[in-house]
Amino acid sequence: MPVAIITGASKGLGRALAEALAARGWDLVLDARTAEVLKETAAALAGHGARVTALPGDVTDPAHRSELVAAAWKLGGVDLLVNNASALGAEPLARLEGLPLDGLRRALEVNVVAALGLVQEALPLLWASEAGTVITVSSDAAAEAYETWGGYGASKAALDHLAAVLGEEEPRLRVWAVDPGDMATDLYAAAVPDDGDPRPEPASVVPAFLRLLDERPASGRYGAPSLLEGR
């Protein structure tokens, strides 16, 4: 069975994607910071018959990243790495004039440095896969200027560029930066707690990710809404 590592997988988009892959027969290594929620997620996904290894921890910890890749190796390798774990930099979001620099550093460390560190750790196993794939979860804030989204958007823009360069440097792999669009997630609620407008559930965008895995287009940046419209 193919094996995926998914960070930030206890809830939201990470959990929804993990559930879809488990239903397709994938084995999974899941990361999140909250152990109890991750344990419950893993138990639910194991009901699909998948082998699920749940490892709570912080992706900024090199030892934790090594643990994730080692767990995937025990399951057979790494066919897919999904860098989904994200930090906002401030909760709620703040204008740049008041953005805490420690928060910006945290966003860059989680969203960019740790993501690249996990890719570096997993590359030997990705090279060995017949369909090695890296997905980095992006945001429209990486490409558009929105008030208060400057720190988070800057970190996602940096992640987009790393993904683009990785796609050039690793032609044997598929490297996709995917903007999932608006979703009803805890991350968004923490970012903009006063926004009561209804937003799509994360599961509604998962078919866009599955389409990429099925059709395997060239490495690049993709928007989930466009992929869903093209079904």
Task: Describe it.
The protein is of the alpha/beta class and 231 residues long. Helix content is 47%, strand content 15%. Helix 1 links the parallel strand 1 and strand 2. Helix 4 runs parallel beside helix 5. The longest helix has 28 residues. The model has no long low-confidence stretch (mean pLDDT 96).
Report the mean per-residue pLDDT as an integer: 96
Give helix % range. 40-55%
What order do the SSEs take from the amino end to the carboxyl end, as H and E? EHEHEHEHEHEHHEH
Main pleated-sheet profile: 7 strands, parallel
**Count of DSSP strands:** 7
**What's the helix count?**
8
Q: What is the radius of gyration computed over CA atoms, rounded to a whole number of angstroms?
A: 16 Å
Strands side by side in the biggest sheet: 3-2-1-4-5-6-7
Distance between the termini: 26 Å
**What structural class do you assign from the helix and strand content?**
alpha/beta
Uncertain segments: none
Shape: globular
Work out the strand percent: 5-15%
Brief overview, please?
The chain is of the alpha/beta class and 231 residues long.
